[in-house]
Structures are given as C-alpha cells and as structure tokens.
Amino acid sequence: MSADSVVEPVDTADVIELWTIPTDQPPAVVRRLRGLLDLDERRRADRAHDPLQRERFTVVRGAVRLLVADRLGTAAADVEWQRGPHGKPAPVLPPAADRIHVNWSASGALAVLAIADGRRVGADVEGVHPPRVGARIARRHFPAPDAALVLDAPTPANSADRFTRLWCRREACVKVHGGRLAQGLGLPLAGPSPLRLADAGPLGPGPLWLSDVTVPGPFRAAVAADLDRPFTVRHRSWAAPYSADGMRRSTTPSEGSSAGFSTAR
Q1: Which residues of 138-155 are buried (b: 16+ CB within 10 A; e: fewer)?
Q2: Is the pTM for the entire model greater than 0.85?
Q3: Lower CB count within 10 Å: N or C terminus of the chain?
C-alpha cells in the first residue's frame, strides 16, 4: 500500500458539506427532536444509562434527520434508514431524490454530518486522546511512518494531537466503505492534508481522498470519500430550529445555519 500526498486544484463541483452539530441543547429542544426519531432510534436512546448521553444521541439523530430530509425534500420523521454489512446507515432514497451519501460521527458535545453527491463519504470527529493511550495504540497498530509521527512528537500534547488526527483519518476511511475499524488500523495515512490514499487495502477498492477539517472546540475531525477526485469541504453549522421553550423559529435558512429548516415540504 502507498499514500501519495498530493495538493492539486480542486474541482469545485466536488463539494462535501460538513455540518457541525452542538449536541448539548435545552430540554424542550431535545423533546422536539425526539419526536422525529423512529422506534429503533428511541429504543437506542433509552438504553443509555447516562441522561446526558441519551440526550446527546437524541440531538444527533434528530439533527441528522432534519438535514437529510431537507436534501431529500421529505419530512424528517419520514426518513428511513438502511444498514450495510457492518452497520453503516444510509438513507432510503425516494425515486426522484438526489443520489446523496451521508455519514456522521459524534464525540461528546459535538457531532459532524458529511453529505456528498454521487460518492461515498466517511466522517469522524474525536476529542483529543490522552498521550499515553495514543502512543500505545500507534506503537502496536500503526505502520512505521504513522507511528513515528506520534512517538517522535516533541511534547505529549503534540503527540496526542497527531495521534487524534491520524485516528480521525482512519475512522473516516473505514466509514467510506462501511468496514470494520481493524481494517483501517494499518493504513498509511501520514502526510499533509489533503491526502490521496492509492490503495485502501482490506477496506476495498481505492483510491480514497481525505482531508483534515477544522471544527469548533477541543476536537479534531476528518472527511474521506471514494472516487479518484479531490474535493472541497463546505463548512456549515447547525442551529436547532426550535427555541429554548420548544417553539419553532421562523428564521430563514442560510449558508452556515439550518435554523429555519422545516421538517416537511
């Protein structure tokens, strides 16, 4: 396997939307979003013993439904999901809908959702991992150049940052193919962003393109996509379409915000 670090002009037609979703919301907003979930999602939320974890799961799934429904021109509560062999969810597309691909990830107070047209996509967000944990995993599982990047860092904080970024890249690549994490641990992903992975190894056909992305707070994130074309990332931030008392906002949606997104068309 080989990874070629390539920086080229990006075709502006290949744009991946990356939505950042703050997962800590007022109780009334959480209740409204719960009303959008299907039975399976509600059961999964209810299985969480930690109330904060339950609420964050509800916010992520509700926000994803609103954003995907807007692209499909349907009601958020009507979005249906199908799962791949290893559990990767994908929306069941109406006959006339755009051929979109989506993937999301959540870590504590932040989630991200990637939406791509006509190509499979993977996204990951992580809080910065403890230095010792990252060094141990890198030493055992990463290829030599990736491990050296982590282990030879000048400070523990720098080592933690490097490991977390490499981990996000792995997760994003794995999620493009809907594979298992073990299949992505040995991928050679050191190098500047954007990066072209010529051979995706056990995950499936390559090449893949990936990019580090900047997100708010103490988090790191990455996006990957199939097909041999680089892409640009359009950053957008999600705001709940409900006020703190649960009433719907009347804001018109605009670049960078989905506060006015409707649950039905």
Answers
A1: beeebbeebbebbbebee
A2: yes
A3: C
